[in-house]
Amino acid sequence: MNADPSLRTVKAWPFEEAAKVEDRLKASGKGGALFETGYGPSGLPHIGTFGEVARTTWVRRAFERMTGLPARLIAFSDDMDGLRKVPDNVPNREMLAGYLGRPLTAIPDPFGTHDSFGEHNNARLQAFLDTFGFDYEFASSTDYYRSGRFDAALLRMAERHEEVRGVILPTLGPDRRATYSPFLPIHPETGIVMQVPMEEVRPAEDLLVWTDPDTGKRHGTRITGGHCKAQWKADWALRWYALGVDYEMSGKDLIDSVRLSGQICRILGGQPPAGFTYELFLDEHGGKISKSKGNGLTIDEWLRYAPPESLAQFMYGQPQRAKRLFFDVIPRAVDDYLTNLEKLKAAPEGTNPAWHIHNGSSNDPGSPIAFAMLLNLASVVNAEGPEILWGFIGRYAPGVTAESHPMLARLAGYAVAYYRDFVAPQKRHRAPSAVERGALEDLLAALRALPAESDAEAIQTLLYEVGKRHEFANLRDWFSCLYQVLLGQQEGPRFGGFVALYGIPGTIGLIESALAREATA
């Protein structure tokens, strides 16, 4: 790939991050960059997993285009960690309870599909990432430790044992401080990942000496070859040092961990990677999302109602700002994506989120109809399936079909699902006020006189003219009336566009029905 240095000046956060990586490589003399994302495989991949890999991918692509240098992305699984508790959402929980403390890759798979629980979850992670077409190399902590990839770094950490301890000890309470070591030996008899103090650390002999607190038996464990692993913050630093990681982003909750791991990486003789701290998501009330509370939005739920491109759009925007992640943000994300896709086709610019989502260009024809408009249509016709929407779509956009516009076809299906689950249960038509009733009667007469082929702009102009003729405090109140009285919802997109899609005769029927309801109430 040819380098394009001009991209360094593009005002978009992936290019700003890529510039940090380029500066790092200039200082180190490396000819390529290594990007990393980390994953704890004791649970299932989630919406945050998607966000971190997608965001890192955008920085990686920006770096490649800007510099012309090669870059790799490693998805690293901490599958050698000990199982701390039995997950709620797995079978054979009683069986798993007998393996607490053992590495995930040394525990039988409760699903019975893989050689270990860790391998099962690793397969789920890879299938998850493959679904979205991410370009990555999978890395297993167990494989790296056992194969010797970390041996030299582990011995280096043993040589600097007290200095590494000195970084972590001030952050611990008195009890934990007395027992802390960056090394976690694997018990030779039970297979448990032990958290015990090291009585002796002998790097020249490749040896850790420690005592089992339950039996009082003294053990000597090799430092290398997968016989021990490093504690969390030391493990992160070990990985950065051993692999030469150039870039890794992380959430706001890991700021202190990044700082401490960076100090340890320097003690080992390495340079911590460039990084980026993203904000965490909030629920609809502004509270912190908790898996145990179930107050967040899962990736499966998002993809039930919108395409993955819309989720990417949501993840792209302002990653250093806390955002509310709940069902009501989905329609806006879809339409923001559609708008940016149209801009990308007209002018491929690196400031456009769709440029990063589609790696610079896209031939997708997108959708001539906004998702919010499809939701309104589904609401009015009480759609039970997408096929009912296509009669209106065909009249509004002649020649547009599911085959010519596959994104629109997908959106029609999503709109029906979203309407069924979220709009229909909340649908409430209110009666018009006296002022609103007069305006609706005026609009009814105006629409009857309007040519049937009038476009959305002509209809929108007519709506403004009718609203101005009546005593609304402002025109926003008039448009709120249209949505609340005619459609039974609080708001929506430009009403002129909806009338053009639904049809003038159909809209006349809506107004007549609304006035009739009031007359008989």
Automatic annotation (TrEMBL):
<keyword id="KW-0963">Cytoplasm</keyword>
<keyword id="KW-0648">Protein biosynthesis</keyword>
<keyword id="KW-0436">Ligase</keyword>
<dbReference type="InterPro" id="IPR020751">
    <property type="entry name" value="aa-tRNA-synth_I_codon-bd_sub2"/>
</dbReference>
<dbReference type="InterPro" id="IPR008925">
    <property type="entry name" value="aa_tRNA-synth_I_cd-bd_sf"/>
</dbReference>
<feature type="short sequence motif" description="'HIGH' region">
    <location>
        <begin position="41"/>
        <end position="49"/>
    </location>
</feature>
<feature type="short sequence motif" description="'KMSKS' region">
    <location>
        <begin position="288"/>
        <end position="292"/>
    </location>
</feature>
<dbReference type="Pfam" id="PF01921">
    <property type="entry name" value="tRNA-synt_1f"/>
</dbReference>
<feature type="binding site">
    <location>
        <position position="291"/>
    </location>
    <ligand>
        <name>ATP</name>
    </ligand>
</feature>
<keyword id="KW-0067">ATP-binding</keyword>
<dbReference type="InterPro" id="IPR014729">
    <property type="entry name" value="Rossmann-like_a/b/a_fold"/>
</dbReference>
<comment type="similarity">
    <text>Belongs to the class-I aminoacyl-tRNA synthetase family.</text>
</comment>
<keyword id="KW-0547">Nucleotide-binding</keyword>
<protein>
    <recommendedName>
        <fullName>Lysine--tRNA ligase</fullName>
        <ecNumber>6.1.1.6</ecNumber>
    </recommendedName>
</protein>
<keyword id="KW-0030">Aminoacyl-tRNA synthetase</keyword>
<dbReference type="InterPro" id="IPR002904">
    <property type="entry name" value="Lys-tRNA-ligase"/>
</dbReference>
<dbReference type="GO" id="GO:0004824">
    <property type="term" value="F:lysine-tRNA ligase activity"/>
</dbReference>
<dbReference type="InterPro" id="IPR001412">
    <property type="entry name" value="aa-tRNA-synth_I_CS"/>
</dbReference>
